[in-house]
Specification:
With 366 residues, this protein is α/β, with parallel strands linked by helices. The protein folds into two domains: 162 residues, Rossmann fold, CATH 3.40.50; 186 residues, 2-Layer Sandwich (Dihydrodipicolinate Reductase, domain 2). The chain contains 15 helices and 17 strands. It is globular, with a radius of gyration of 20 Å.
Length: 366
């Protein structure tokens, strides 16, 4: 374990796909001291050695989330704990509660509705506020950017009436990410084939579609309607009457493997990781988010469109995680428990993302 002060910005899972992307951005932004943590000290040290030597102070620490004492020792050294470990549906509120016990703020690249519910149970949100501490959840690409970018689009319109969203692509899956994909089902996460219509969820409203051509993706894709809980929150917050929310698969293997795993109630991620890798070998790696927004009548072309393209969705998650951390360090997020899309400025995030080398973002109107 390398030494650093007791007021570190600790990134658990800091050498993983999302964590390393967040660490690089935080280091470049001058956030310090950084504490890169995880079960494999060799990987943490390798990332530390790869950071520019003239940057702010950084160190590493071995932490095992299955060892509560190890997690407590880590949290005790932090003023802000950043959770980039996974799968998030196994970790849930474990890291967040350790942060609160030791008086640290918290940012989670994932940690969506199940973690939020646990942190807010029995007055938990009030405990964070009373302690003057802040927890920011869902600070990744999906959920996270998927809730923020449509808000940047609605701010450009007078009366948004309909939103169509397409999210996904072809990407390798880490075991942790595969675990999150496998477990992201049930009412806590969303409703398959549903749409948001006239202020409520309408089940069995939309069919899947194949060979859909969209600007965010380099080839025709298959889209599957899944009205996520994030989409429902977005609809309620913005007052949009109609929302269609689609998961995009750019390859052939992953969608079939995921359907089989769900049908068999399997928790083994091996098949998902292999299927995603096969899709990448055949089609390359690419990720996108595309949003179409209507004003007034919804039977014509959309009034505005936002297109996000990236070669790496993990870089996008690292971008938003780092953004949430920096805003929290600057004191612009109030104490309590929040979703990132509720407390980050959509226009500022879209502008910063458009300038980030990991992304290609365009907004068109008319």
């Amino acid at each position: 374990m390398n030494n650093t002060s007791t007021s570190a910005i600790g990134v658990i899972g800091g050498y993983g796909a999302v964590g390393s992307a967040a660490v690089r951005r935080l280091h470049q932004a001058g956030a310090s001291p950084l504490l890169i943590a995880g079960r494999d000290p060799g990987k943490a040290d390798a990332l530390l050695d790869a950071l520019p030597a003239d940057g702010p102070p950084a160190a590493t620490m071995a932490v095992d989330l299955d060892d509560p004492d190890s997690l407590d020792r880590f949290a005790a050294r932090c003023r802000l704990v950043v959770n980039c470990a996974g799968p998030s549906y196994r970790i849930l509120d474990t890291v967040a509660e350790a942060a609160l016990r030791h008086g640290a703020d918290y940012v989670d690249a994932a940690g969506d509705d199940p973690a939020h519910r646990l942190l807010c149970a029995d007055g938990g949100a009030g405990q964070w506020a009373t302690a003057g501490r802040t927890a920011v959840l869902s600070a990744g690409a999906l959920p996270g950017l998927s809730g923020l970018l449509p808000r940047a689009l609605t701010a450009r319109t007078r009366r948004a009436t309909r939103l169509d969203a397409y999210l996904g692509g072809v990407a390798p899956l880490t075991p942790a990410a595969a675990g999150d994909v496998l477990l992201a089902r049930g009412p806590e996460h969303g409703t398959s084939a549903a749409a948001w219509q006239n202020g409520g969820v309408r089940e069995r409203a939309l069919p899947p579609r194949r060979d859909v051509r969209l600007d965010a993706f380099p080839r025709p894709v298959s889209v599957f309607p899944f009205l996520s809980t994030e989409a429902v929150r977005l609809a309620r917050d913005t007052g949009i009457g109609h929302v269609r929310w689609y998961t995009v698969f750019g390859g052939e293997r992953l969608a079939g493997e995921l359907a089989m795993a769900w049908a068999m109630n399997s928790t083994d991620t091996t098949g998902l990781v292999a299927a995603a890798a096969e899709d990448v070998r055949h089609y390359g790696a690419w990720y996108g988010q595309e949003f179409h927004l209507w004003e007034g009548a919804t039977d014509g072309p959309p009034a505005a469109k936002l297109v996000l393209r990236s070669a790496d969705s993990y870089e996008l998650s690292g971008f938003l995680t780092a953004t949430a951390v920096l805003r929290l360090l600057h004191g612009s997020i109030a104490p309590g428990v929040h979703f990132a899309a509720d407390v980050l400025d959509p226009a500022q995030v879209a502008q910063a993302l458009a300038a980030d080398p990991a992304a290609d973002l365009t907004i068109t109107q008319g």
